[in-house]
Amino acid sequence: MDKSVKEIIVLSGKGGTGKTSITGSFAALEGNNLVLADCDVDAADMHLLTEPVTEMEDDFFSGKLASIRPMDCTRCNKCKKACHFDAINITDGIFSVDPIACEGCSYCYHVCPSGAIDMKPRKAGKFYISQTRFNNYMVHARLGIAADNSGKLVTKVREEAKDIADEERVEYLLVDGSPGIGCPVVASLTGADFAVLVTEPTVSGIHDLSRVFELIEKLKIKTGCIINKADINPEKAEELKRFLNSKNIPVIAEFPYDESFTAAITQGKTIVEWDNGILKDFVTQSWETVKKLINS
Fold it and tell me: Which long-range contacts (C-beta less than 8 Å, at least 24 apart) are formed by 67-73?
């Protein structure tokens, strides 16, 4: 990716903090000067806010899936005995593979004396390139049922988004990351220029934020934090700010609890479209602050 394109990832240590709502608002504010990537592939929902029109879709393959050719199978039962995942089924004497249970380890392939087993590429999901109603490109994906290669799919989404950002000569690549600290988050973070943490002043909010920051700290990524629903628990809000201060993480903004966020989402709108008052001002100023912090 062209170094002039700044990659910003929005993360939360837990779900329900308002991460996607804030990311969608940033995309609406910046318009065609950014490319959007929805890297929450396990539970993608950015499309609910952006109304994307798909321009391209393609299958995503990752890992292997065993497949037994019945005509060549001698029914020796060695594959079933070897499989540690109980993925080999026998129905009316015919051996077959349960695609959900199969882990693609290839053990059955190697023990089959008649060579009746093939290891085929596993379709793990789909990815899409779309135009949003904010006049920017969005790359998003859908992980397949029982697929477990979400980290690789996140990497694919980011790679496609980076290519588009270079082609379109935009200034920003904005990534909606997965909650938590697992493989999809690591895949989302690596190489990013700035991380926006979205949290709330609760016990779980503080705990999960500290965990995700440990990861960000190891990757040496510049960071800022938005405290959403900051007024629901003043004591925990102060505890949260003390933690942020101890880690030299600037507070980008403190949003008050407001049911307008929920009302906007239920109508498929971002808060900057729904609200013309203080909430819109808060989010707009937050985006301007993020851009200043990146370039500082």
Answer: 67/97, 67/117, 67/118, 67/119, 67/120, 68/95, 68/96, 68/97, 68/116, 68/117, 69/116, 69/117, 69/118, 70/94, 70/95, 70/96, 70/116, 72/114, 72/115, 72/116, 73/114, 73/116
Whole-structure pTM value: 0.87
Rounded Cα distance, 51 and 246, in Å: 40
Tokens (6 digits) for 211: 């965990």
Name the H helices within 68-219.
78-82, 107-111, 150-168, 183-189, 203-219
**pLDDT band at residue 1 using 50, 70 and 90 as cut-offs:** low
Domains of the chain by start residue, with CATH: 6-51+133-295 (3.40.50.300), 62-123 (3.30.70.20)
